[in-house]
Design goal:
rod-shaped; 316 residues; four-stranded mixed sheet; single chain; 1 helix; six-stranded antiparallel sheet; 16 strands; mainly beta
Length: 316
């Protein structure tokens, strides 16, 4: 007896008919067979599931399209009601799935990765399935189903949460990923979304980009350097950082004031003096040189007065 989905509805009941035979009417029966025992072999055919991107809220995977629920020789039973269920073929069914946080705006996205334990019937690895929660659909639950085709399958899985906060043109975003967490059994699941400072969380892109408002677009920001000055009494001197104008203002250069030259006896008396370090006996090189200069000027002035007899042209 076989049935198809097009032959049945929710209210359809299939009533098979059996003929009871006595032991002497059956040749070569099984050793444990009795007249009221029926050997049943059930098989489930599964259609292809929807695509992985057809519905972002529901993920269904069929690992084996034809599933035998009974062994080759059938299963002995005395029941008149035979159940044939698709979930008897090793089904993983997790849902509704929700997150334990509330997203504040559309810059926040939560991604949860699920991975079922074990391998497929052909020995290959089961793929990772991802669900995303965004600001607009965060109140809608998610559902995850796998038809493994393995009647002894235990619904065990792991999941991992990743949080992404989108950045802007002037600041970097941030993201963090929590550790893998184990889950067991079918049914509803509330996913815990970790914070960046929880144990086992891996963070990245946490430093914001520094933007200088004063700096023109496309030019690097100049860093100010601390000024250094020589301590009191240090003859080697020190360096001091110049005071710069705000960015964007025209550059100005200081021009030293030019003094008018005043020549007396071949010497410019308006030339600035340069102080030298103290010498011996409390005198400096400048005071010695000044004394010699004054003495020379006095001698030449005295000779000029004797030659010309006029003292009014000399102005010191």
């Amino acid at each position: 007896m076989s049935s198809r989905s097009t032959d049945t509805t929710d209210q359809t009941n299939w009533s098979p008919a059996f003929a009871l035979r006595q032991k002497d009417e059956v040749s070569n029966p099984p050793d444990d067979w009795e007249p009221d025992v029926t050997y049943v072999r059930r098989r489930v055919h599964l259609t292809e599931p929807m695509g992985i991107t057809d519905n972002p809220l529901v993920k269904v995977d069929v690992e084996k399209n034809v599933v035998d629920l009974d062994p080759e020789g059938g299963t002995p039973t005395t029941d008149n009601v035979l159940e044939v269920r698709a979930d008897s073929a090793g089904k993983l069914e997790v849902g509704p799935i929700d997150i334990d946080v509330v997203l504040q705006d559309n810059t926040q996205v939560v991604t949860v990765e699920f991975k079922a334990s074990g391998h497929k019937h052909d020995g290959s690895e089961r793929p990772v399935v991802r669900f995303q929660w965004k600001f607009d659909d965060q109140s809608s639950p998610r559902y995850w189903e796998i038809f493994t085709g393995q009647t002894d399958y235990a619904p065990i899985y792991d999941y991992r949460v990743t949080v992404d906060v989108k950045g802007t043109l002037f600041s970097r975003g941030m993201a963090w990923t929590g550790p893998w967490t184990s889950g067991l059994g079918n049914g509803p699941l509330m996913v815990h979304v970790p914070s960046p400072d929880e144990a086992g969380v891996n963070t990245r892109r946490m430093e914001p980009r520094q933007v200088a408002v004063e700096s023109p677009v496309g030019q690097p920001v100049e860093e100010s350097k601390p000024s250094t000055s020589a301590p009191p009494g240090d003859e080697s001197g020190g360096t001091t950082s110049p005071i710069t104008a705000p960015p964007g203002s025209p550059r100005t250069e200081s021009v030293p004031e030019k003094k008018e030259e005043h020549i007396v006896a071949g010497y410019n008396v308006n030339q600035p003096r340069v102080e030298a370090p103290p010498g011996e006996f409390g005198e400096t090189k400048t005071t010695k040189k000044t004394a010699r200069t004054k003495k020379t000027v006095a001698e030449k002035t005295e000779k000029l007065e004797e030659l010309t007899g006029d003292k009014s042209w000399v102005k010191l």
